[in-house]
Specification:
Largest sheet: none
Order of helices and strands: HHHHHHHHHHHHHH
Structural class: mainly alpha
Distance between the termini: 85 Å
Shape: globular
Number of strands: 0
Helix content: over 70%
């Protein structure tokens, strides 16, 4: 069901976005208008991407691991606090500092309030994090988002004029349910039919790649004359600063709370990596094209910065380990020689 925002409430935001922006070719301003058939196809494929991603995530999760971490919930509690505390607050602060209009602000807030994404598991592996904790955190944050995401959106939207009653909470909750069902299916497959798990993962990756390519092509066709409207300094700044803030603050909070360096690195990746597939589905399906405009492509910009920054951090960590190990070996060698010399 498409959200129908009160035009009076969002008029100021629409004016800020479109006023003075000249469309290529006809020299007039216009609001994004996607053909109905193309819009439906895009909706279907972004939903397919989300479903496949969540089934694959579920297939990596074991019920026994969930139980073990729930019995010792310190790591999960800190991770959830960082995920649903740091990222929404960062999105809110950036929106205020950059004085974003309602349309851009709601886009950034939805992205900031999303749970952790499956990419965090890959990057946690790259920085030698606790993989069990990473997967459990991603799963738990997905389930917790059903209640926390609408609540956080409601609270933070109060700080922006025109958004108090403009967010389609029912559509967002529906999208969140759509993430939990396939995740539960994946967990069930991995628990009851573990021999099917590799097949599901491989098939899922193939479908995911093809769907992503189709969405990229169709999105390019839909917004070819308006893509520049999301490549603005404020949106690029948000896309660069939000994941970086999540990585840094997630690590700092984990260290302060007494987690091990390995778990702290895991929490950092979980905090900075959002579920961009879910964000894209909400922006594309919950809002009509006339309202959200080309902002539904913001997740593509965000994930580009997110992956780039995560790769840089992973590279820095690997370099640190590479140079640290020879130094430790040399130090240990000196200690051994000194002990040998002291012996008669």
């Amino acid at each position: 069901m498409k959200a129908t925002m009160n035009l009076t409430e969002v008029n100021e935001g629409l004016a800020n976005i479109y006023n003075g922006n000249v469309s290529e070719g006809n020299g007039s301003t216009s609001i994004l208008s996607i053909p109905l058939a193309l819009n439906k196809v895009l909706d279907i494929f972004v939903i397919i991407i989300l479903l496949i991603t969540m089934i694959s995530l579920g297939c990596t999760m074991e019920i026994s691991k969930i139980k073990n971490h729930l019995l010792k919930p310190k790591g999960i509690a800190i991770a959830l606090l960082a995920q649903f505390g740091i990222m929404p607050l960062t999105a809110f602060c950036l929106g205020k500092i950059l004085q974003m209009d309602p349309i851009k602000a709601v886009t950034v807030l939805i992205c900031g309030c999303c749970p952790g994404g499956s990419l965090s598991n890959i990057f946690s592996l790259a920085i030698k994090g606790d993989m069990n904790l990473s997967i459990v955190m991603t799963t738990c944050s997905s389930f917790m988002a059903l209640g926390l995401m609408p609540l956080l959106l409601y609270l933070f939207c109060q700080g922006f004029t025109g958004l108090q009653n403009a967010v389609p909470y029912s559509s967002i909750i529906t999208a969140l349910v759509l993430t939990l069902v396939p995740c539960a299916i994946g967990i069930g497959i991995n628990h009851y039919k573990p021999n099917y798990t590799p097949v599901v993962k491989k098939t899922g990756v193939s479908i995911l790649i093809m769907s992503a390519i189709i969405v990229a092509i169709l999105s390019g066709i839909a917004v070819k004359n308006m893509i520049w409207m999301i490549l603005t300094p404020d949106m690029l700044s948000v896309a660069a600063l939000m994941p970086l803030s999540g990585f840094m603050l997630g690590y700092v909070i984990s260290i302060i709370c007494g987690l091990s360096p390995q778990c702290s690195r895991t929490v950092a990746m979980e905090t900075g990596c959002q579920n961009i597939q879910l964000c894209a589905v909400i922006l594309k399906v919950a809002f009509s094209p006339e309202i959200i405009g080309p902002m539904f492509l913001f997740p593509l910009i965000y994930i580009t910065f997110q992956c780039t920054e995560a790769l840089i951090l992973a590279g820095c960590f690997r370099c640190y380990q590479t140079f640290k190990r020879p130094a430790e070996d040399a130090y240990n060698s000196v200690d051994i020689k000194q002990v040998e010399l002291k012996q008669p």
